[in-house]
Amino acid sequence: MTDLPTAENPLRIGTRASPLALAQANMAASALIAVHGIAPDTLQIVPMTATGDRIQDRALAEVGGKALWTRELDAALDADEIDIAVHSLKDVETLRDPRFALVAMLERADPRDRLVVREGVDAVSIADLPHGARLGTSSPRRAAQVKRLRPDIVTTLLRGNVATRLGKLAAGDVDATLLAAAGLDRLEMFDIGAVQGADLLLPAASQGAIGIECRSDDDKVRALIAAIDHTPTHVAVAAERAFLAALGGDCRSPVAAYAHFRADGSLRLDAEIFSDDGAEHAAGHVLVTGAGDAGALAHRLLDEAPEAVRRLFSA
Ligand SMILES: NCc1[nH]cc(CCC(=O)O)c1CC(=O)O
Questions:
Q1: How far apart are CA 298 and CA 251, in angstroms?
Q2: What is the per-residue pLDDT for 84?
């Protein structure tokens, strides 16, 4: 039997303090409340500031990469100050310390990007943007994808949380930006921006997925959060992350990877890799079909990932 948290001994949910991170932590809390039938006061949200939230003026790849989003939450988990950490999985390193276990993922939201333009710019796709438009992003993937589609567009660094970026766009710092539909929707900004098809702008690995970690040796909490795992999301996102891992942890090239189940039950992984300026580009997909449940398909995809990487990107 799962040991349930109590008001005296609540489950402490660690999260970054940004509005998006808090919304995601609350989604995890709601899922736990619903599945276990527990009272809201048996859960406690513990917001923390990550180094990545403090550094606003540089590209994160220059100063330490994705660990800047996880370091504080990792330390708090390790010190038993929180019991679980809720992350935008896109921002979590592929190779994690074995002391932490990524046990559950919530059902994935829209994985695509939306193009958001400032007032006075009339565009619903990258192709529509005016000649020489300035597009702000902090994502090397988005910058490379945009430059590949539109070499005339000038990409500049745009950092900060979603509201900060939208503020800089409104102020005219840039003409356009790309933001994850998932983040905008979770902030209830349903009308902001125009969705870009995954065929033109393949999403980042894990985009739209929320991951929930705990201490690997914490069996009680593991059981508690395993109950809210969404298996199809977990399988597809695991395939994307295995693909990144197969590319190698030191791969600094912009990469896009998106896996999804098709109506016939097969699992398809699409991937692209770019040079920073988008001039060089390789793309491909792997399709795993046949008998077996989602887990079996995913394992096959994972087994095939190193070979798939060679096949996709050996031109
Ligand atoms: N790097 C920031 C980040 N990390 C996750 C999301 C969106 C939410 C998600 O992908 O689940 C965002 C904002 C964005 O890219 O627009």
A1: 23
A2: 98
Angle between helices 162-170 and 19-36 (to 10 degrees): 140
Which of 15, 16, 20, 60 has most ligand 1 atoms within 8 Å of CB, for mutation? Answer: 20
**Distance (Å, rounded) from C-alpha 180 to C-alpha 112?**
6
The best mutation among 66, 88, 138 to test binding of ligand 1, ranked by most ligand atoms within 8 Å of the C-beta, falls on 88
Note the pLDDT tens digit of each residue in 54-106. 776 766 666 667 778 899 999 999 999 999 999 999 999 988 999 999 999 99
Closest CA to 164 of 57, 88, 50: 57
ipTM associated with this complex: 0.97
Q: Quick one: tokens of 225?
A: 């959060």
Is the per-residue pLDDT at 315 higher than 50?
Answer: no
Who wins on pLDDT, 279 or 196? 196
Cβ-based burial of 206 (10 A; exposed 0-12, middle 13-18, buried ≥19): buried
The answer to whether the beta carbons of residues 20 and 181 sit under 8 Å apart is: no
Domain boundaries, the chain: 11-108+209-229, 113-195, 242-313
The topology under which CATH files domain 242-313 is Double Stranded RNA Binding Domain (3.30.160)
Catalytic residue among 83, 91, 175, 270: 91
The answer to whether 113-195 and 242-313 have equal CATH topology is no
| Contact between residue 13 and residue 45 where contact means Cβ atoms under 8 Å apart | yes
Pick the CATH number of 11-108+209-229 from 3.40.190.10, 3.30.1360.120, 2.30.29.30, 3.40.50.2000: 3.40.190.10
Please write the tens of the pLDDT for every residue from 101-131. 999 999 999 999 999 999 999 999 999 999 9
